[in-house]
Design a protein that fits this description.
By secondary structure, the chain is of the alpha+beta class. The protein has helices at residues 13-22, 24-29, 56-69, and strands at residues 2-10, 34-38, 46-53, 79-89.
Length: 97
């Protein structure tokens, strides 16, 4: 499992989430298997997004799409500044049942 991890400041969560939701089909078509959205407990103007892919190549390709077709084109109305990103590979996982 590979994860595209994205962090960035936002102006308003509701506006940001509506924009995020508009890209649901594109995420699915790009191979996103699962996503998680989190916010710091002390900062309502910041989001962390994890998009899970089967391969790092799928994650890199989708990151390229975000950089060229979303973040720099005005299609991200609540985005503040440039997102910070990393592509992660799962090294270990634990889950208590």
């Amino acid at each position: 499992m590979n994860t595209l991890h994205i962090e960035h400041a936002i102006t308003e969560f509701g506006v940001w989430k509506a924009a995020f939701d508009r890209f649901a089909e594109m995420r699915r078509d790009a191979g996103v298997r699962r996503h998680r959205i989190a916010q710091p407990v002390d900062d309502a103007h910041y989001v962390l997004v994890d998009l899970d892919f089967a391969t790092a190549e799928e994650a890199r390709k989708f990151l390229g799409f975000l950089q060229t077709s979303v973040w720099n084109t005005g299609n991200a109305p609540a985005l503040v500044g440039q997102p910070q990103t990393r592509i992660l590979e799962l090294a270990d996982e634990y889950s208590e049942s």
